Amino acid sequence: MLPAITPTLDSPAPPPDPAAVPADRAAAPRHATRLTILLFGFCLWAVVIVLRLGQFMIVDRDRYLEAMSREALFTGVVPAGRGRILDRDGRPLAWSERVFNIHWHLPRDRAQAEMLRDRLDREPWLTAALPRPLPEDCLGQRLQLARDLPAAQAVRLEALSDLVPGLEVTAAFRRHVVDDPALRPLIGAVASAPDGTEIGISGLERAHDDILRGLPGSFRVMLDREGRWLPETWRKVGELRPGYDVQLPLRGSRSAEASP
After folding, report:
1. Which H or E element spans position 105?
2. Residue 177 belongs to what H/E stretch?
3. Distances (CA, A) of 11 to 8, 14, 15, 18, 27
4. If DSSP codes are grouped into helix, strand and coil, which group holds residue 100?
5. pLDDT-based confidence at 145, cuts 50/70/90?
6. Is the CB of residue 242 less than 8 Å from the CB of residue 213?
7. Per-residue pLDDT tens for 81-128?
């Protein structure tokens, strides 16, 4: 019996059938390839992020900080009052009065503009020049609502400016000269610089401009997303110095007594 069994035991085993290999073992190489690709993509994305952060924080740091500061900071100028020209008795011959101009930067959206216009109607004199409804060509524009307002009237708009975005109250000066036909040409005239400073351009105003002219002040304040001031961030940058008075050996008319 042994010789008949021995060949059967020593015969080679048949090769495995591919169809009989478990499915999870066959899919393992494919899963490994996918994981490798995903890991490579993640590493590449991380390298790009690190390089980009390095560019922002090291290479272009100063440029981006400067751009952000320009958008978030507002630098303003406060014009200084010009000195007076006095006659020999101390009566003013020329003097300046601080006045205020009102502008409104309208929204581009009509519904929002009309809603804000209703709030402005609390001061009818302010919206008297605005037609109803608002014309299409004025949406998104900066309109002048009033000029040369006295301080007492402009103060009333302080609370309103918080309710109406785009409402601007800016200060300026108006120069007065005594009503004397003989003295007016001698005193001369002034012109306003872009920062609101009054500059003498003729007559005594020009001759004594270095004394009469004031030194404007400056400030910086942070803005929120809507462009409104953050009062707690207000900082004075430049000191304001009003101009000095000049007294001349002239005698003005009695009408100057009503001057400040």
Report:
1. strand 92-105
2. strand 167-177
3. 5, 9, 12, 21, 33
4. strand
5. confident
6. no
7. 999 999 999 999 999 998 888 888 888 888 888 888 888 888 888 887
